[in-house]
Design a protein that fits this description.
- It contains 18 helices and 2 strands.
- The chain is mainly α and 433 residues long.
- The protein folds into 2 domains: 199 residues, Up-down Bundle (Growth Hormone, Chain: A), CATH 1.20.1250.20; 215 residues, Up-down Bundle (Growth Hormone, Chain: A).
- The protein has a two-stranded antiparallel sheet with strand order 1-2.
- Strand 1 and strand 2 form a beta hairpin.
- Helix 2 runs antiparallel to helix 8 and helix 6 runs antiparallel to helix 7.
Length: 433
């Protein structure tokens, strides 16, 4: 029994996966967003704000509740379990109401409140809760441990998407709201079990009384403040660029004449997203400076984006195997780099600022995710609506010029992020010793 009590897999890895496999399903939004819009009588654009708000409040709740996570992971993981499940169930309830009252603003605002605000709090606290615990249990392989959990967040879409599609097809009339209520119950059980199992090592004691940890700003100022600003900005840019391209991924694939393979390619890209979270973080454990991983992500992204721009890969890709491979390579790499950026940030921060306040500092840094959630998708949508025009490829209306124009913005942002990682972020960990 004592072995089970102090088993790092049972007390850290499994609960982290239970939490992250649940909350990671927020990225399944595209599977059912059109169904929600049709069922309640609103445009897809109107309902899209529910997802943007969920990501925004994820970042904001992580930033403002980071201290709660720092002090009591049991309280924070319980808050996560209740808020995420309540948000999902409430979303289902307002979809049901919207179906009875087509075009009801009350239903739309209720979905914003439940999926965006309440579920967003569950996302932020649920995302943070297991991270420090994992780093404490896996001291020698912190990157691998956090990568495992964060990969669960990224991989949740690949696992949940086909289940959700099956439910929508087989639950009959009103399947969309029934799905939310059923999944709210399932995910609450999963997250509550994770909450019960999650435990810090017995040999770790949080500073108390005279040992009270220094204030977050004092910790951040232990190094030039530009160091933290650089980390925050390159994290924000990586997410913004990732969301900008990933939000247009389905239509880009259709531009290539691969409309029949959208589902398969979406699943493969989700696997790359999860693989990047695990692979890049495990790789970083072997490097002297974890920031090297970010430099690699940005350089590879810049090179592949430049190649697609120069060749006009999205515009000229239909029927050209080489260009199709090049564009798909960009999509897969952006997904992998997007995931790798998430899994490496807590360990990079711990290398720079230590473990005493890592949950709170990580939480503040996740505010970048919240702001990127509001800007990434919306930026790409604005560009696509502003540039080019729709043409028909294999019977599908797409805007190749618009999607290609998005790349000019993302390559500029990736270059800025690379400069940040090279000029602002100081050496850390083994490289700084």
């Amino acid at each position: 029994m004592e072995k089970l009590r102090n088993n790092k897999w049972i007390r850290a890895a499994i609960p982290a996966l239970l939490l992250h496999f649940s909350i990671g399903t927020v990225y399944c939004w595209s599977i059912f967003s059109q169904e929600i819009a049709d069922y309640i009588g609103f445009s897809k654009g109107a309902t899209e704000w529910a997802f943007s708000l969920a990501i925004f409040f994820l970042g904001m709740s992580a930033a403002f509740l980071g201290n709660v996570v720092e002090k009591d992971i049991h309280k924070s993981s319980l808050i996560a379990s209740i808020c995420f499940a309540l948000g999902m169930a409430g979303t289902g309830g307002f979809i049901y109401y919207g179906g009875l009252h087509q075009g009801s603003v009350f239903a739309l605002v209720g979905i914003y409140l439940c999926y965006g605000f309440i579920m967003g709090i569950g996302l932020g606290t649920g995302y943070l809760s297991p991270v420090k615990t994992l780093m404490l249990w896996f001291k020698d392989r912190k990157g691998l441990a956090t990568g495992l959990a964060v990969a669960g967040f990224g991989g949740a879409k690949a696992i949940a998407s086909p289940i959700m599609q099956w439910m929508l097809a087989n639950l009959g009339k009103g399947g969309i709201y029934k799905m939310f209520i059923i999944l709210a119950c399932v995910y609450f059980v999963m997250m509550f079990v994770g909450h019960l199992l999650l435990k810090k090592p017995d040999d770790w004691h949080e500073p108390q009384g005279d040992e009270k940890a220094p204030k977050i700003m004092d910790v951040l100022k232990s190094k030039p403040l530009t160091n933290y600003i650089g980390i925050w900005l390159m994290f924000y840019i990586n997410i913004t660029c990732g969301l900008a391209l990933i939000s247009q991924e389905k239509m880009i694939v259709k531009c290539l004449g691969l409309a029949g393979f959208v589902g398969i390619i979406s699943t493969v890209s989700a696997i790359f997203n999860a693989g990047g979270r695990l692979g890049f973080s495990a790789w970083a454990d072997k490097l002297k400076d974890r920031n090297t991983i970010y430099k690699l992500i940005f350089v590879i992204s810049i090179v592949l984006t430049a190649l697609v721009i120069v060749t006009g890969g999205i515009q000229n890709g239909a029927g050209n195997t080489l260009l199709i491979v090049l564009v798909l390579a960009l999509i897969m790499m952006v997904n992998a780099g997007y995931g790798g950026g998430f899994s490496n940030v807590p360990t990079l921060l711990s290398d720079h600022y230590g473990m005493s306040n890592i949950s709170a500092i990580h939480g503040i840094t996740l505010s970048a995710w919240g702001f990127a959630g509001l800007t990434g998708n919306q930026l790409a949508n604005w560009i696509v609506n502003k540039f080019g025009q729709e043409v028909e490829i294999n019977g599908v209306l797409v805007n190749p010029t618009g999607y290609q124009t998005v790349l000019y913005v993302t390559i500029a942002l990736y270059i800025v992020a690379l400069l940040m990682s090279m000029l602002f972020v100081k050496k850390s960990g083994k490289a700084a010793e």
